[in-house]
Amino acid sequence: MPSNTSPPVLSDVAGASIPTWGDGRRARIGLLGGSFNPGHLWHRAIARRALKVLGLDQVWLMVSPGNPLKTGQAMAGFEARMATARALADGRKIVATDIEARLGSRYTVDTVSLLQQRFPHVRFVWLMGADGLASLSRWKRWRVLVHDLPIAVFPRPGQNAPALKGAVGHALARWRVPTCRAAVLALLSPPAWAFLAGAQNSISATAIRKRGGFPVGVCSQAGQDRQNTGEQP
After folding, report:
1. Neighbouring-strand partners of residue 220
2. Which residue positions in the chain have pLDDT lower than 50?
3. Of all helices (H) and strands (E), which one includes residue 130?
4. Using an 8 Å Cβ cutoff, are 48 and 94 in contact?
5. Which of 121, 102, 124 is nearest to 112 (CA)?
6. How many CA atoms lie within 13 A of 182 on its CB side?
7. Which of the chain's ends, N or C, has fewer CB atoms near its CB within 10 Å?
8. Nearest-CA neighbor of 109 among 196, 224, 232, 195?
9. What is the pLDDT at residue 141?
10. pLDDT for residue 223
């Protein structure tokens, strides 16, 4: 269950309620990081499911300024990508935020460390799709990351077997938490992770761009974005 000691969350679609230097809020918060190039309904579905199944107070759609694992790919400007995340947020339970850009960190492991320092009473959970788990070994200091906070993994078509049976899945197998205990995942000492089997959605940012639904060429800032943070697709 969400913490009863959490402060009231003000409606704030822009995410300004998340201060760069942190605060003393007490809450369970899911971090859904990514390029959001563009954000789409799968992101919203994951956020909503995480709130319900993990007993979270809030989910932050944490838009990455750039993605080291996507160097060379078409990347829309940061503000354009933020706009798509804001369109998915309700500003209360699901908040789109530019805090990773404000922190100036380059990689997820560094971002998480800074957030934990600045929000010392928050119980963070990293949210990712099965495709993220499958590629986790490519993330900088991923072994440190899994020891820093619990992780919730959501199914993606064609990615579940590679994620669970791959090298990372085997390496983390001993710390996997059964789905029936997902509601307390945020309270567990890491490493701890759960695979939350359920409805799957094949929608992808790549497919949206190929259909012309997000004209990255109009607002591309790829040169700037590559200098910044985040590995999560």
Report:
1. 76
2. 1-11, 72, 205-211, 217-233
3. helix 130-134
4. yes
5. 124
6. 21
7. N
8. 232
9. 96
10. 32
Question: Can you give the pLDDT at residue 221?
Answer: 37
Angle between helices 41-53 and 78-88 (to 10 degrees): 50
Partners of 195 in the beta sheet? Answer: 153
Q: What is the pLDDT of residue 62?
A: 94
Q: What is the pTM of this model?
A: 0.81
How many residues make up the chain in this entry? 233
Q: What is the DSSP letter of 76?
A: B
Buried b (16+ CB within 10 A) or exposed e, 62-76: bbbbbbbebeeeebb
> What span, in angstroms and rounded, lies between the C-alpha atoms of 210 and 206?
6
Specify the DSSP class assigned to residue 176: B
Q: Are 43 and 72 in contact (CB under 8 A)?
A: no
Whether the bond between 215 and the residue before it is cis, its omega within 30 degrees of 0, is no
pLDDT of residue 210: 47
- The dihedral over CA atoms of 183, 184, 189, 194, expressed in degrees to the nearest 10, equals -30
> What pLDDT is attached to residue 58?
97
Per-residue pLDDT at 224 = 34
Q: What is the pLDDT of residue 17?
A: 73
